[in-house]
Amino acid sequence: MKQLSATNDFVIKFANINGSGSASANELFAKAILRMGVPVSPRNIFPSNIQGLPTWYEVRVNEHGWLGRRGGVDMMVAMNPQTWDADVREIEPGGYLFYDNSKPLPASKFRDDINVIGMPLTQLCNATYSEPRQRQLFKNIIYIGALSVLLDMDPEAIAQLIAEQYKGKEKLLAPNLNALKLGRDYATDNLQPIGLRVQRADNVGDRIFIDGNSAAALGCVYGGATVCAWYPITPSSSVAEAFQRYCAKFRVDPDTKQNRYAIVQAEDELASIGMVIGAGWNGARAFTATSGPGVSLMTEFIGLAYFAEIPMTIINVQRGGPSTGMPTRTQQADVLACAYASHGDTKHVLLFPEDPHECFEHGAVALDLADRLQTPVFVMTDLDIGMNQRLTAPFQWDDSRRYDRGKVMTAEMLDEGREFGRYLDVDGDGIPFRTYPGSHPDKGSYFTRGTTKNAYATYSEQGPDYIYNVQRLLRKFETAKNLVPQPVLQEASKTTRFGVIYYGSTSPAMSEAFASFEANGHHVDTLRIRAFPFSDAVSDFILNHEHVFVVEQNRDAQLRTLIVNELGIDPARVIPLLHFDGTPITARFITREIEELMQALNAQTLRQDKVA
Amino acid sequence: MTYIAKPKLHHPALQPNKVGFTRRDYEGKISTLCAGCGHDSISSAVIQACWEMNIEPHRVAKLSGIGCSSKTPDYFLGNSHGFNTVHGRMPSVLTGANLANRDLLYLGVSGDGDSASIGLGQFAHAMRRGVNMVYLLENNGVYGLTKGQFSATADKGSASKKGVANSDAPIDTVSLALIMGATFVGRSFSGDKEQLVPLIKAAIGHRGAAFIDIVSPCVAFNNHAGSTKSYDYVREHNEAVNRIDFIQSRREITADYKPGATVDIQQHDGTWLRLRKVHPEYDPTDKVAAMNHIQQHQARGEVVTGLLYYDPDSNDMHANLNTVAQPFNRLDEQALCPGAAQLAKLNDSLR
């Protein structure tokens, strides 16, 4: 029979039951490969459930460092009888099925074009452990041990990781190491070698391994956020939890033991965003973390913050919606809902981080932009980036960096006789000065409300006053274009009339697809959009190419709509390329779709030439 | 209402208080509410209380929701920052503002539509959290700005101006505040300044969530026979449990009263409250008894007023969150940013 053969380039998927303790064992597996200098990208595929439902952990091992989901499975570790049939079906021909053969299964449960590796995990556990929970937990470590032999992994790397994990809990260390050895010994004595292997390399470099939600939270710590108000919602809850963790570490006054931060779990998203607005109005840096359904609830307040010009940061970890929706599946489907959130004529600044490194950057940058522009700023991450650990460039911070608090008129400035109009455009950039409440006894106070006001924040329902303010908001949005993170261009090795626009978590799949285009001689330039409003580079890119594919993870081509709408681009120039089943987009998908489209467009051009 | 602008000149006889401000310095813009509106009397009581307590006007932040009541912060304390937020959401915005700068005095002004209907949740949760604030609920039982619909505090059986009887049970905001953990709960009447001003002063001196429900008749839509929120009805049925003699002194009060006729409470800022008992058996520090008393008297159609509950050991949200004494909005990079060296260490732990 055919045996798939690959070194440092394969996909292994673990099918487990939620709550069985498999997550930490599987993470151990992925990290051990990283320690061998070989890049991996794991993804959790999990249900909206705490215990009992199926959960998968898919690890792509790839020496080149392609971190997008590949698609296909070379080896399945099938530990969940509920999903057995589907799991077995998913294996590539010639691939491997690793399973617990403690109980015999009928031949009809297998395929004859795959390699089956049985190991009596339950029997081994029952013979070794008496407690049911131990039997369950150590079963995971035992299969990691067996896999480490099959894949020729370095046992020292695993042992070292276990030692780090149980540092200070030495009682747990020895049993875990024993379980690992048990698995290794059984595999060495009883299992046949397979064609997949991990070989030590040096391709990880100084990169770090972290999830985007933790990174965004850390960005908020570094960026000076003091107030976090939130309401639990998958997949964003771990942002607030990580903020709590990092603040406990970095933001406690060493002398008084008091906190330089406040985290409030609000009663709902209306209250969480209300608190963020109140704190922003009063001069503290504040943020919330939520997902699409939460943004829907916040939209009235987001409109108020836009018109009253109050700084705030919203981290939107996007998922499928609505309500129960697909809370544990990834999408980029809130782009329009956030860009135009709320009633009235509103537009908001959006940032699109590509990975945890940028989640950190954008977390901190969003707080600066919000203060500078006095407006809501969205950090548009998603479940794929947010809830999966990803290999990413190390975080960086320049100690000379200062927080940009924007235009704040101080008591000293007021005393010098500076004119203060809360909504007065003094610099022509559309951004007015604000004062913090309580700054000055008789100057600079104002009454904040929606749109019924003049440039001096006095109540007014006059048309010209309204127009002055909303036109100024457009000028401010124009100013934002040059302040937000600029798009990143990657040019093909040859001049081409094809371009691709993409953003956010599509990045790793797109980088891989780009390399494959180059290798196949299909040349495309790519532009990664990092923010809305779009800078001029975006319209230039589109106008410099005959056909531009816009790759997105939603059904309605939302970013494309935004491009057409905001840049006045002919819709025929921008071709949607959409992936929206809730799984992360793959390089295989992008390559196949774009190459087909390019072929069709080339044929079309030839026909047109003939007619001409 | 009047369209005549107030003259800027101050009468030379106006007395400055200890921080050098006259009562006029605590006023705001001309009210645009109807002549005779109870809310204007409340604004006037706020002005009086702040002036008497020597509060610097700019050290107050006044926040409100939407509705007639929520317009009033524009009509007092013109040198304070104000924020007219969205309907029913004043409590959350005030909570955030309070987190950002714990040193200001926070006045939250709301109405019965704002707090008992659309914002019932936010009202309840602000009480639970012990946000250090004075929460004034200007309660007229009716939606004024949208012209006379019942609100959720309208009593069952009370009639609208058009004669329709209300069939739904009323939400009793003081009982709710008590259940939700407010540490200062009072009720008053906009037409009783003698009671209202000391009550507001006591609320300002309180640490934690101080809630005052103020029955404030709507002269346009809810001041007729059949209403239980009219001037006449409240005057006839007002049952005060006590009167406050607020004494801003750090020394114990020694004035002579009959034994058992008064209760003295020391507030966290060291000042004393003296309550003259009207109902001799009423103990405002006993929450369960207070709830019982309120329910019994309200069942008879009475409007129970006074300082209904007071927790002398109250705490506030900042104490619960163990935050630093310095306001967050004055913390700089030095205090907030862990710096590059810590980040390098953190990077190392993620490899």
Please provide a written account of the structure.
The complex is a heterodimer of chains A (612) and B (351). Chain A has 612 residues and is α/β, with parallel strands linked by helices. Chain A folds into four domains: 6-197, 3-Layer(aba) Sandwich (Pyruvate-ferredoxin Oxidoreductase, domain 3), CATH 3.40.920.10; 210-392, Thiamin diphosphate (ThDP)-binding fold, Pyr/PP domains (Rossmann fold, 3-Layer(aba) Sandwich), CATH 3.40.50; 411-483, no CATH class; 488-611, Rossmann fold (3-Layer(aba) Sandwich), CATH 3.40.50.920. Chain A is 40% helix and 19% strand. The longest helix of chain A is centred in the C-terminal third of the chain and has 25 residues, at 587-611. The N and C termini of chain A lie far apart (55 Å). With 351 residues, chain B is an alpha/beta fold. Chain B has one domain (23-334): Rossmann fold. Chain B is 31% helix and 19% strand. Chain B contains twelve helices and 13 strands. In chain B, helix 3 packs parallel to helix 5. In chain B, 53% of the residues are buried. Chains A and B meet through strand 9, helix 7, strand 11, helix 9 and helix 10 of A and strand 2, helix 3, helix 5, helix 11 and helix 12 of B.
Question: TL;DR of this structure?
Answer:
The complex is a heterodimer of chains A (612) and B (351). By secondary structure, chain A is an alpha/beta fold.
Feature tags:
heterodimer, A: 612 residues, alpha/beta, Pyruvate-ferredoxin Oxidoreductase, domain 3, Rossmann fold, 4 domains, six-stranded mixed β-sheet, 23 strands, 40% helix, B: 351 residues, eight-stranded mixed β-sheet, three-stranded antiparallel β-sheet, 13 strands
